[in-house]
């Protein structure tokens, strides 16, 4: 043990040689460390994504360490649904506000249930495999790496011991080669030198034997560690499969949420039409003036000059106004005397038909608007070319 720590200290101080591992082995070690570090970060951030509340995460961690079942927790959506339902009961479930609260609350409950299913699926199919790697395979790899480090220190200590023994043997041999002075009664120097040489020779043999044993142990441990490190490739394959499953469950979760919100929007849209149409009819019946009162405004209107109007048609974002298309042909319109502006194109845009103008990123064009156009579109000009362009692809300049 003393030799072990002596070798470790001398290496740290740069006073001892160190057995270096081959380049492939070092690359395996670096890859394993990289896998461990990124797996920890991805695991922690996924836990934050699934459970943003840090106190709840700590509670779940403690339950897992105590090997106890994590208690079921109400999701935020389910809690909101509960509050909306209770409010509807207080306001009156038959009132328009109460009915709407019930519908929205039911959708929030479904969203909360979908969130719960997503969290459960992600925990089993994604978090658990990552956690198993860190707590299982990685611990085994770390243990074997520590053993390999100890074997290497023993090996280098044996190398240093053998080196010193050979140096001492050579020195003793040189002293023993000196011609003894036989005029003395006892040639003590010669006898002691021969004895020291024999002792150091035995020491060299012992050191060589220990070196062979430690070298064998080091090679065996290096092979075990190498096999474990090469298994990181299988870990990557497993994590890749889990990642696909996580994305699939997340996609299903958001698709469910989107469908629930579409259904709610349709319900609220029809209810809104009924409510407001009833309100307008009620107001018209209660506030409509007598027939005689309508004649003066009619006469006044007859004396005003006629003003042409353009029919107003509801527009959909990203879809050109059909009335404007029928009235305005971008290739035939002329730019207004004022109101034109320069614009820089942010992204490439491929024209959908002959009425649109294809765009290239970073080019400069002239744009302007015409009456009746969809506000999401402008007329763009580039030299002799002209056509409709989407506003979101432009940076309007002063």
From TrEMBL:
Keyword Mitochondrion included in the entry's annotation: yes
GO cellular component, one term: Golgi membrane
GO biological processes: apoptotic process; membrane organization
Keyword Mitochondrion part of the UniProt annotation: yes
Residues of the BAR domain: 10-277
SUPFAM superfamilies found in the cross-reference section: BAR/IMD domain-like, SH3-domain
Family the entry assigns: Belongs to the endophilin family.
Quaternary structure note: Homodimer, and heterodimer with SH3GLB1.
The protein's name in its UniProt record: Endophilin-B1
